[in-house]
Amino acid sequence: MDYECVSAEDFGASLRGLGLNLLVRDVPMQCAMLETVFGMSAHRISRDFAILRYGAAVFQLHSDSTYHANPYLSFLPEAAPRGAGAELRLYDSDPDEAAARAEAMGMQVLQPPTDKPHGLRECYLICPDGYAWVPSRVL
After folding, report:
1. Is the dihedral of CA 118, 40, 111, 139 positive or negative?
2. Cα separation, 57 vs 103, whole angstroms
3. At what angle do helices 27-38 and 95-102 cross, to 10 degrees?
């Protein structure tokens, strides 16, 4: 599928299984950060929407304004971070490389790369919207 020119209707009809849609304050900034820190590819980037690919996984970013008629918008905090409690685990990203690039892109390194007892080396990076991105590699 060509994500640069697929229609909204065809893209929506293609989605299967588990979907991920993140509401963010600044779609282009979030795309630039995810491309730089994790090597994701972003498609159809606008101030309202983007399609992102991470390996074979596809997910979406939407701006708050796209949810103007959705009751879920009322649950979003005005100023506080949004993603508390959600970990977005990226099992094919090197935590050392991601952490080295993260701060320059506006992410907070909450936990530096650490070898964990469950057999992974990982770190916790918090983006400006409050989501915890966790790049991980097998030890």
Report:
1. positive
2. 25
3. 140
Q: Residue 127 in contact with residue 82, Cβ under 8 Å?
A: no
pLDDT of res. 3: 94
- SS3 at position 1: coil
The per-residue pLDDT for 11 is: 93
The answer for residues whose C-beta is within 8 angstroms of residue 31's C-beta and 6 or more apart is 42, 45, 50, 52, 61
Q: How high is the pLDDT of residue 26?
A: 95
**What are the tens digits of pLDDT across the range 63-119?**
989 988 888 888 888 777 788 778 899 999 999 999 999 999 999 999 999 999 989
Chain centroid offset of residue 115 CA: 23
Q: Are 58 and 52 in contact (CB under 8 A)?
A: yes
Task: For residue 122, give the nearest of 107, 108, 111 by alpha carbon.
Answer: 111
> What CA–CA distance (Å, rounded) separates 103 from 123?
13
- Tokens of residue 121, six digits: 């080396």
